Amino acid sequence: MKLHQFALAAALAVATLGSAQAGIYTYTGNLATHDYIGDAPSRIVAHFEFDFENSPGAEYHMYEFKSWDVSYGSIHLSSAAGNGLMNSFTFDAAMNITGWFFNASDTAEPWLYNENLQSLSENFLGHAPNEASDIALLQNPLRSAAVYGNQGTWTLAPAVPEPATYLMLGAGLAAVGFASRKRRAQAA
C-alpha cells in the first residue's frame, strides 16, 4: 500500500511541475500619427510568451521566448514564420514589463529589413519612464509609420490551463475519495 501512495504523490508532483505556464504579454502601441504603409493609420500589436522557468539566463533576468508575434496593419511577423527579433525587456519584481525594446523583421538580421516593426521604451535612453516610440518601416521605397513620445500599453493574459492541471485536480479528487472509502471500510 505504501508503494501505491508514493506513486500517487509522485504523479501529483509531476502534474504540478508540468502545469506551470507563463501568461502571454500583449503590447498595444498608440495609433500611428504618420502612416505611409496602409490605407488607414494602425497600431503595433505584439504578443510575447516568455519561458521564465527554463531560460538559461533567468538568474540574470534574461528570458527566452516560447513564442512571439508582431503586427502592424497588413504586416505580420512571428517566431513561427522564422522572422527575426532583436529585443530587450526589463521586469519589476511582479514580472510586469517596465522597459522594452523590440525590433521585428522579416529577415533574421533586422538591420537588413524588408519589413520592420519596432517599439522602444525610452527607459533605455534615460528619458521619462514609459515614453515610447513606435515605428513601422517598409524598404523599397522606404516608407514608414511612426508614433513618437507616447506610451503603449501592456496587458498580461493568464495562461490557459494545461491538461496537467485537470489531471492534478482529478488525482486529488481520487485521493480524497480513496481516503474516504478507506475510512468507511475501517469503521465498518
Short description:
This protein has 188 residues and is an alpha+beta fold. Helix content is 22%, strand content 38%.
Major β-sheet profile: 6 strands, antiparallel
Low-confidence stretches: 15-20
The mean pLDDT is 75
Helix content: 10-25%
Total strands: the figure is 11
SSE pattern, N- to C-terminal: HEEEEEEEEEEEH
Distance separating the two termini:
20 Å
Class of secondary structure makeup: alpha+beta
- The gross shape turns out to be elongated
Instruction: Give the spatial strand order of the biggest sheet.
Output: 2-10-9-8-7-6
Based on CA atoms alone, the radius of gyration comes out at 23 Å
Number of helices: 2
User: How much of the sequence is in beta strands?
Assistant: 35-45%
Task: Please give the domain count.
Answer: 2
Question: Could you walk me through the main structural features you see in this protein, from its secondary elements to its overall organization?
Answer:
- Keywords: Signal.
- This protein is α+β, with helices and mostly antiparallel strands and 188 residues long.
- It folds into 2 domains: 1-19 and 162-188; 21-160, no CATH class.
- It is built from 2 helices and 11 strands.
- The strands form 2 sheets. It has a 6-stranded antiparallel β-sheet, with no helix packed on it. Strands 5-4-3-1-11 form a 5-stranded antiparallel β-sheet, with no helix packed on it.
- The longest helix has 25 residues, at 163-187.
- 21% of the residues are buried.
- Mean pLDDT is 75; it is low at 15-20.
